Each structure stands twice: as C-alpha cells, then as structure tokens.
UniProtKB/TrEMBL annotation:
<dbReference type="InterPro" id="IPR050315">
    <property type="entry name" value="FAD-oxidoreductase_2"/>
</dbReference>
<protein>
    <submittedName>
        <fullName>FAD-dependent tricarballylate dehydrogenase TcuA</fullName>
    </submittedName>
</protein>
<dbReference type="GO" id="GO:0033765">
    <property type="term" value="F:steroid dehydrogenase activity, acting on the CH-CH group of donors"/>
</dbReference>
<keyword id="KW-0274">FAD</keyword>
<dbReference type="InterPro" id="IPR036188">
    <property type="entry name" value="FAD/NAD-bd_sf"/>
</dbReference>
<dbReference type="Pfam" id="PF00890">
    <property type="entry name" value="FAD_binding_2"/>
</dbReference>
<feature type="domain" description="FAD-dependent oxidoreductase 2 FAD-binding">
    <location>
        <begin position="16"/>
        <end position="442"/>
    </location>
</feature>
<dbReference type="InterPro" id="IPR027477">
    <property type="entry name" value="Succ_DH/fumarate_Rdtase_cat_sf"/>
</dbReference>
<keyword id="KW-0560">Oxidoreductase</keyword>
<dbReference type="InterPro" id="IPR003953">
    <property type="entry name" value="FAD-dep_OxRdtase_2_FAD-bd"/>
</dbReference>
<keyword id="KW-0285">Flavoprotein</keyword>
<dbReference type="InterPro" id="IPR012831">
    <property type="entry name" value="CobZ"/>
</dbReference>
Length: 475
C-alpha cells in the first residue's frame, strides 16, 4: 500500500490525476479516478481536523428513486426532481448537463454506499425532506470521514495544508501546479487535474466587488479556505463562466455566529412565527411567505439589503418551542419594549410597528393557526402583509434574536462539457483540466438552490470528472 496522508516529498513526482480540494466533489473524483486505475493525489488546503470544506456541514442528498426504502419514505421520480429543479431561480442553466445530473443521480446512493457512505433512517423534524432527500448517518462530517477512510484503504495519498496557488498552463494544457504545502512551495506535475475547490464565498474582497462594504456584516457558513483561488486561476486562463456572477445562497444566521464556519447550527428558524424589524424599527418583508424552502433561501438576501445588514426577530410565548432553539440562546423580557431593548434596538419606533402589526392580525388567528403548513392566517391593512401564521405578538414573555446574512456558497463557477472538462471562452476545452462540485454547479443551476442538490452535483460530477481525468491520463 502506498504511503498515505503525508506531507509533500522533497523531489518532484508525477501523478496521473491530481485532485484539488478535500470536500465531497474532490473525494468522489479521487475514488472515481482510482476506480479507473489511475495514480491519484489529493491536495486539501485545510488541516486534517478541518478537512472536508462545506461538505462536512451537510446532512442530506437529493436523488431520483423509484420507490420507498429504508432511507426514503416514498418514490421521487425523474420527472418530479426535474420539475423541482426547473422551479428554482431561473431554472437549469444548461439543460443537457442538468438532465444528465438528474439521470445520473439515481445511481448515486448505491455508489456512495459502495464507497463508504452510511445512511440514517428518516426522522420527523423541521425539514420535512424524508421522501425526497436521503440523510447521512452522522451528517456530512461522518460521510467525509468515511470517504477519507476509503482513500486510506485504497492507498490514495492526501496532502493536508496543501494550498494550490497556481496552475501553470502551456496553451490549453495544465502542466503543473504550484502548491504551498505547510509553508513549503512545491511543484506538482500531473497528466490530468480535477478542480474541486468549491466556491469563493470566503473571499470577502471578491464579494465586496459586488456587494460593497455590506460584506463586513456577512457571516460565511463554511470554512475560510473556499476563497476561489483556483476558480480565479481558471478564469484568468480563459475558462468560460457558468452561473450568476454576483449570486450566492444565504440564510438568516444568529448575529453572534462566528465570521466563518458556523455551519448549520447558527441558522435561525423563528422568522415565520414572529416579525422581523430592521435597524429603523420597521418591518420590511412578509415573514409568513413560506417555511420551506423559501425561508431558507430568501432571508439572507433580505437582510443583506437592510441598513447595517441586521434584523431583529421578535415572537411571543405562544410560538416559542415550534422551531429549533437558537444555539446561543434568545433574548427574553416581559414586554416588547424590554426585548427590543435587550437586543440593542431603540424601543421606538419598533414597539409601534409591532402594535400596528397586532392591529392588522386577525382576531381569530388562534383557532386557525397551523405551524404544519401554509395556514392563510394573514394580516389586513399592514404593509408589508404577513400572509401566513400572522398571530398577534401579545403573550409574554416575549423573545427576540438578532440576525445577519449567512452566506452558504457562491453561484459563479466555470463552464464544463458533458465529460467534466473545463470549457474555454472560445468554446474549445482545456486539454486536461476537469471540474466538479460547487466550482461548476453554475452549469446546472445558474442561481437559486434546491436543498440537497449541492451534494448531488458534487457526487455526479465528481464521478464523471474523476473517470474522464483518469481516462485522459491513462489513454
Ligand atoms: C452549513 C451548510 C449546510 C449545507 N447543507 C447541505 C446539505 O445538507 N445538502 C447539500 O446537498 N448541500 C448542502 N450544503 C451545500 C454543500 O455544502 C455544497 O454544495 C458542497 O459541499 C460542495 O462540495 P464541494 O466538494 O464542491 O466543495 P467543498 O466541500 O466546499 O470543498 C472544497 C474543498 O476545496 C478545498 N480548497 C479550497 N481552495 C483550495 C486550494 N487553493 N487548494 C487546495 N484545496 C482548496 C477546501 O479546503 C475544501 O476541502 C450546505 C452548505 C453549508 C455551508
């Protein structure tokens, strides 16, 4: 067995396939290339403890399946997944590649099981995804650890703290990579390269180009390593763009979250059951628009558009306990003024805004309120309206939490062809450079997001790119 999980050697080595990244798409690419008989090296920028990129924060994956089984509560046929994908944002960007992704998704769970994944039986909970999505036993961290174990079993080396700084090109061919490995700069040569280094959501300067100083108030839900350095290299070397350039997926997170890597635990789910004020003490969006999936994708962007990118969510004891409790606790007081004050918001005009909201909420809301679905309990004469779950906020104690935009990932990546090869601006392809995962997900969806489909894209395209990179190297 080859030596594994080690640091860079002193002398240059040539690999059939070098995979850049250490998350889902990278590990799948590495195993797929190895399945073809290639000699593979994985370069992960994080250290061993923090390996796994955004993928270690995930919980589930969305794939076509024809019937219920131990891990999905019912069938999810091709047509339904396709329709769901078409309903997201502006829909599939490249229909052929999106169709290929959906078709290939059907074989993904079995492939994952054969390569180290374990599954969890569906649970009741806040996500209501047991039919369409399969959950990883122990979450994304356990999935990733299982894949790393499989790499180790196969003897595929992983270099940690290996930051790819540049790709050296001779025309459309990448000849070598310059890599900082634990402070030492080495040149790695490869016959084929798979770029699976995620998006650029952790590159605050890059985000600032589109969003200005507001970025200072964004929280990045995943690791600081996804700064788009490899994406930039590909674009600078002529790769065509896929996906909305400014776009990102974002949710409301606790304003007390760490700047990076808060993961799923800092997401705030109270919004549909209360009201959200901005810094001026005003409501600004229909909190009752939907629970799932819109609340998930809309509120990060909503907050990003408010003064100082902060929101103040307020609810009362009637709904306390209907959603996951915020991990850092909540502000609590016996009056609305008290809870606004505890959150650091001047009492007026926030208190008046909530009084007006209460005046517009229906008197019979209590009998019709249904947290299990859109209940149509709506305000009248209030702008903006709250169109569901519009109960008065009138029963102490009152609760509150401050929220900020939490960026999950960016949408812009590089264009690929059906073999995962990076496409150049003139329509030709790079000779030996492939891409998988978030760095090319813009080929499938240019904006918006379907829960669980990030891992589907990474797995489907990791398999394709790994296989094609190996075939290129071994031809
Ligand atoms: C909190 C959270 C929850 C999520 N939940 C889900 C979910 O349940 N289901 C789902 O489908 N999707 C989910 N997503 C989205 C999902 O995480 C991504 O779609 C998916 O993980 C992308 O995989 P990837 O391998 O392309 O990127 P990543 O997993 O982010 O991996 C990128 C890798 O590249 C490495 N890297 C970056 N730059 C370099 C460099 N220069 N040199 C070497 N290595 C580099 C990083 O260290 C990292 O290992 C979630 C995201 C977040 C943040």
């Amino acid at each position: 067995m080859a030596e594994v999980h080690r640091r860079a050697p002193d002398r240059p080595e040539r690999w059939d396939v070098v995979v850049i990244g250490g998350g889902n798409a990278a590990l799948v690419s590495a195993m797929s290339a190895h399945d073809q008989g290639a000699r593979v090296l994985v370069l992960e920028r994080a250290d061993r403890t923090f390996r796994g990129g955004n993928s270690r924060h995930t919980r589930n994956i969305r794939c076509v399946h024809r019937s219920a089984d131990d891990y999905n509560t019912g069938a999810y046929p091709y047509d339904e997944l396709w329709k769901d994908l078409c309903g997201v944002g502006t829909g599939p960007s490249d229909e052929d590649l999106a169709e290929l992704t959906v078709t290939e998704s059907e074989s993904v769970p079995d492939w994952m099981s054969a390569h180290g994944a374990l599954w969890q039986k569906p649970l009741a909970g806040t996500l209501h995804l047991g039919r369409t999505n399969r959950f990883f036993l122990g979450g994304g961290k356990a999935l990733i650890n299982g894949y790393y174990r499989e790499l180790e079993r196969r003897g595929i080396p992983v270099w940690y703290e290996a930051k790819v700084e540049s790709l050296e090109f001779d025309g459309p061919r990448c000849n070598s990579l310059v890599v900082d490995v634990g402070g030492k700069r080495v040149t790695v040569t490869a016959t084929a390269v798979v770029c699976a280094s995620g998006g650029f959501e952790a590159n605050l300067d890059w985000l600032r180009e589109y969003w200005g100083d507001a970025v200072s108030n964004y929280h990045i839900r995943g690791p600081r390593f996804n700064d788009g350095l490899v994406l930039r290299q590909l674009l600078d070397n002529g790769a065509a763009v896929a996906g909305e350039q400014r776009g990102f997926h974002s949710v409301a997170v606790d304003a007390r979250s760490p700047k990076f890597d808060g993961g799923i635990a800092t997401r705030i789910d109270s919004i549909p059951f209360g009201v959200v004020l901005n810094k001026k003490g005003e409501r600004f969006y229909d909190e009752g628009e939907d629970i799932w999936p819109k609340r998930y994708a809309i509120w990060g962007r909503n907050l990003a558009g408010q003064p100082d990118q902060i929101g103040y969510c307020v609810w009362d004891s009637k709904v306390q306990g209907l959603f996951l409790p915020p991990m850092y606790g909540v502000y609590k007081a016996d009056s609305i003024a008290g809870v606004l004050d505890a959150m650091g918001l001047p009492t007026e005009p926030g208190r008046t805004t909530i009084e007006r909201f209460n005046a517009g909420a229906p008197a019979d809301a209590a009998g019709r309120f249904d947290p299990g679905g859109l209940d149509g309990v709506a305000t009248a004469g209030v702008v903006p309206a709250k169109t569901n779950w519009a109960q008065r906020i009138d029963t102490p104690p009152y609760y509150g939490i401050t929220v900020r935009p939490g960026i999950t990932f960016t949408y812009m990546g590089v264009k690929v062809n059906a073999g995962g090869r990076v496409v150049l601006e003139d329509g030709s392809t790079m000779e030996n450079v492939f891409a998988a995962g978030e760095i090319m997900s813009g080929n499938v969806l240019s904006s918006g997001y379907l829960a669980g489909f990030g891992m589907t894209i990474g797995t489907v395209w990791g398999r394709i790119s790994g296989r094609e990179a190996a075939r290129h190297a071994l031809r």
